[in-house]
Write a structure and sequence with these properties.
It is built from 9 helices and no strands. By secondary structure, the protein is mostly helical. The N and C termini lie far apart (54 Å).
């Protein structure tokens, strides 16, 4: 997609803002690397720890805007995000390791000083992936519960939430919202359209009952086949029971 002059100007400004956020994280990493618990207050490190989620949030807001504009360089933007997340989790891990080590030393009464040049393990936690939804109505409730916690109830601009929503959908679910431009106003409309289609208790119950009635035939009276049939029926009965429908089969 060729960007016009206004879009290029906006992209340049967003990248400048991203640079400011990345610089803040770099300063934090440098502070951690130079921190000496023997002569510096641990609270200084704890203050940095409290600041990290805010830095991460600022980066995410700017990065989503860039990704929406700079679609021609999607791989490059993905690398930018991966690099930032790697440094972010490394910073959190290093801070926690120093704090834990200092607390263990205080608890045991060990007065030995910490080696300021020690290398602390850097646990790189993989980011939690957003749930996926392809239009299977039986999976809607679990999908939207997770999506609400991770995105919908978070303090993101609606357009960003719409971007995340689109990235989780496929098949008929994506087709339902695909015609809507990704704007703040359309995010609520997209959620409404999905809920109208899939947040339908009666239809969900029907699909589970139909799945039970259409249970696969047993090809042979083996323990494996019987166990497979039992698992199939039990799963759908449990789903019905969770919706207050008992003895449906």
């Amino acid at each position: 997609m060729v960007l016009d002059a206004e879009a290029l100007k906006m992209l340049s400004e967003l990248k400048r803002k991203r640079g400011v956020v990345k610089a803040a994280l770099t300063r934090t990493l440098k502070f951690i690397g130079n921190f000496d618990a023997r002569v510096e207050a641990l609270s200084l490190l704890e203050f940095r720890q409290e600041e990290l989620p805010q830095i991460n949030r600022k980066f995410d807001v700017v990065q989503v805007e860039i990704e929406l504009l700079n679609t021609d360089e999607a791989l490059e933007e993905e690398r930018e995000r991966e690099e930032f997340e790697s440094n972010y989790f490394a910073a959190r891990s290093q801070i926690q390791e120093i704090i834990n080590k200092n607390k263990r030393r205080n608890a045991s009464g060990d007065e030995a000083s910490l080696d300021s040049s020690a290398t602390y393990p850097r646990a790189r936690l993989a980011p939690i992936e957003l749930p996926k939804f392809n239009g299977n109505i039986q999976e809607w409730e679990a999908f939207f519960d997770s999506f609400k916690v991770m995105v919908h109830d978070q303090d993101y601009p609606p357009a960003h939430k719409f971007h995340y929503l689109r990235s989780t959908l496929s098949g008929q679910a994506l087709d339902l919202v695909k015609p809507l431009p990704m704007t703040d106003a359309n995010y609520g409309l997209a959620i409404q359209k999905l809920q109208q289609r899939y947040d339908n208790k009666g239809l969900v119950i029907q699909t589970h009952i139909r799945a039970i009635m259409n249970s696969p035939r047993i090809q042979s009276a083996s323990a494996q086949e019987l166990s497979k049939l039992q698992s199939h029926i039990t799963a759908h009965l449990a789903a019905l029971d969770s919706r207050g429908i008992e003895n449906a089969y």
